[in-house]
Amino acid sequence: MKIPKAPLTIADTQKGLLDKSFSAVELVDYYLQAIEEQNPSLNAFLTVSGDVAYEQAKKVQKLLEELESRAFEKYPLLGCGVAHKDLFLTKGIRSTAGSKVLENYVPSYSSTVVSRLEEAGAITIGKTNCDAWAHGASGENSDFGPTKNPWNKKFVPGGSSSGSAASIAAGLTLFATGTDTGGSIRQPASFCGVFGLKPTYGAVSRYGVIAMASSLDSMGHFARTTQDIKRIFEVTKGQDGMDSTVKNGPYQAPPEKLKIGIPKEYFVKGIARQVETAVRQAARVFEKQGIEIVEVSLPHTQYAISVYYIIQPAEVSSNLGRYDGIRYGVGREAFGAEAKRRIMLGTYVLSAGYYDAFYLKAMKVRSKIIEDFDAAWKNVDAVLAPVSPTSAFLLGEKASDPLQMYLADILTVAGNLAGIPGLSIPCGFDGNGLPLGFQLLGPRFSEDVLFGLGEMYEHASGYKPKVAEEKL
Amino acid sequence: MAMGKLTKNDVEHVARLARLPLSDKEILKFQKQLSEVVTYVSELAAVDTSKTKPTSQSTGLTNVTRPDISKSKGLTQEEALSGTESLHNGYFVVPQILDKKDR
């Protein structure tokens, strides 16, 4: 039997499996066929793991026969297709980080996130394209060619978790993992019209994920509803004994009466009118639900990009130092232009004579940015802001100007510097039919507050999950 | 301090530190691009941080330890060597770093 249309949520997937509308194997058939049809033009997947997926699907069916509905209690993501950003190590499945340096690297172990999702019953569909080493805001820095935006293939899907966001928007998987070091989940989620969670720094283990900037890297995911984002987070979060930065909360419970701040500094010069309008409309949706909306100030926001483009390349230059082509991968000459640029920049700001003026200074201004947020949390429970100054931009538009590309991260990097969680929520389309989104940021370990707000927004705005082809 | 402009020598020096083999064309390109970025980020000099402590990470965790018992099985020799073809008798082949005259 062929499934005419894939279920778009965890609940629908599991309902369909339980009432035998389709089997897990048929679900895998569907995803693999959709990938075969769409991937040549989208370039969202770098590796499709069909053999692994079928093996896992057969296990899912066996568990369902044995346990019936109780299977979902034991395996909360049973039967759910997942695609992993190619930064996540997957045992036995090639993991490239989007770089030719690791073109033929097949890991001998899996990252904690991948193992936990598999243990929860998820089915690994494949590995997704991304800016090489997660360096980029458009997907164009992938050494395997850019991913296209499923809503309009002339536009970028955002980055660096480009293929993960695009694969959800195109309906090639149920959910996908990503990493967010400076906006790499929230911004592509926004450009592709899907939900993306950047968890609190240290909420999810980084073990087995190729490191970009270790004090900023957050392991998150993409899905089509807040409910799904939350259910996946329940599986991925928590200590694993392998990453010493992981903390088990304590998670903040949503308060009775919520107050949201609108940070005035996020409505920067150059922000597209349609983006600003959409974000302000989203604020009104919350207001109608009885949530108080107030203006807040995060005065050091303007410096976030400079702090980020010192600290992040410094950590990148250190993390990429290990790629010498001896134990795995190929030599350093195989790094692409952007990786080389960041290694150079990072090495420069850490070098003798410049460390104090750049790196130490940036670490101090980082403290100022954290103080700004801490002051805001005394007054509000979350802030609501645009994710990116514009909707998706054209392929090639910023590719030749690194500084312009770096400035695309202007509204997302502060959240990484402060280590706070962010949820990117779709909120309609612009005049060109490209998705618009906004982000909710909250204090560390306030994920449950953000999820509550996300669900409220979906309900109040009449949001329905959809895939890109449905616009036709 | 003259911040912002990188000379060709600066770029070559940094490339050496980072062990990146760069072509002459790349050196010229990076000289311009890195100068632009460094000029931009130099705006931080304007922020008063005289009373601010630096943040290196945001968890507030310090001295995270575990009992000195290995839970992991680790990698087998075969697994550890599986990422390269440059092997000799079960060892990684590495570039020579000592010359005869260094002995």
UniProtKB/TrEMBL annotation, chain A:
This is Glutamyl-tRNA(Gln) amidotransferase subunit A. It catalyses: L-glutamyl-tRNA(Gln) + L-glutamine + ATP + H2O = L-glutaminyl-tRNA(Gln) + L-glutamate + ADP + phosphate + H(+). Keywords: ATP-binding, Ligase, Nucleotide-binding, Protein biosynthesis. Residues 26-450 form the Amidase domain. Pfam families: Amidase (PF01425). InterPro entries: Amidase (IPR000120), Amidase_CS (IPR020556), Amidase_dom (IPR023631), AS_sf (IPR036928), GatA (IPR004412). Allows the formation of correctly charged Gln-tRNA(Gln) through the transamidation of misacylated Glu-tRNA(Gln) in organisms which lack glutaminyl-tRNA synthetase. The reaction takes place in the presence of glutamine and ATP through an activated gamma-phospho-Glu-tRNA(Gln). Its EC number is 6.3.5.7. The keyword Repeat does not apply. NCBIfam families: gatA. GO terms for cellular component: glutamyl-tRNA(Gln) amidotransferase complex. One of its GO terms (molecular function) is glutaminyl-tRNA synthase (glutamine-hydrolyzing) activity. GO terms for biological process: translation. The lineage of its organism: Bacteria, Candidatus Woeseibacteriota. It is an enzyme of class 6 (ligase). The active site is at K85, S160, S184. Belongs to the amidase family. GatA subfamily.
